[in-house]
Amino acid sequence: MAHARDGRGRPAGGKRPTGKGLRGKRLTGERKRPAGRKRPYTKQREGGKRPLTLTERRKPSARRLLRREVPSTVAVLAGADDFAAMQGYASFTFDDHATYMRQIEGLLRDLAARGTHTSVALFDPVGYEEFCTESHLDPDTPASRTRYTAEVAAAGTKVTYEGEPLARLLPRLVAEAEQQATWEYASSLLTRGECDSCGEDIGHAAFARATALLRRIIRAAGPGTHHLVCSIPAEGSTPLIAVLHTESRDDGLLHLGEAAALLFCTVLAAGIATERPGGVVLRSIRPGHRDTVRGWNLKDGGWLHPLTEAEVFAAYCTDARTGEPVPPEPDVDYRAGLPLED
Prior knowledge:
alpha+beta, 10 helices, 37% helix, 17% strand, elongated
């Protein structure tokens, strides 16, 4: 016998069939629940807690939210020599520098993915050993390395990790650390007290003269992009070196980095205050012209005297750190230094 049904598969009249014969059977139009999946249960059972919903389980805990507000500093053994020095400790378990750097980069990515503000600093094995000796710590423990990172490395030069590769971040970190060390050492040379004859503070007077000399160099160089290098001998084989980039426009407007200018003047002032021989080299770049290199040497109580063309060539084609000759560059003119008159 045929039965009349509506569009939803129900018997005519709109009533849903009931009865023992339908118990346990799926009606037409009902979705079948996947095997092994239970119906969500949100009703609170007697004497128990209501199970968390999926949204509630995904909600970050208060502790996890607080963890995002705790900054992190990762101290890196940037050089292979520093890494080799730490391999003498049994608790330092890395075998090669390349693997160590890959693990460091992975750690930085994980911290960034968690929303943690992360800075990268340098781990100095010599400084670490001194720190452990002064603090009466066993250097062969991860806890001691953690304390050194938190108390020493994090307080020094560091850069913020913003997702860039370590190969690009580390050179910037090393350069900033070298600049900081140069500034600290040069500043220490300026604390020489007062002049015996006139009573003037030697450091302040030397810095004022260095600032005036920098102004004269920039004024004499004229419009263009200029690259200045100041080199002063220091104790040991490594000299104090400061680099400054400036841009002078035809209308007299000057662009330069304040931090770099401060370092340049501090290094030059250190040479003036200590009466050490040193020098300044200037490379000028102008559109449509060959680059020009000029130079001055520091002598006679802290004055910059112009070098001859031959002296400029010799100074510019010599590595300031090693003293080894450097091949001359093409399309570069070596000229005598300009007079720096008042």
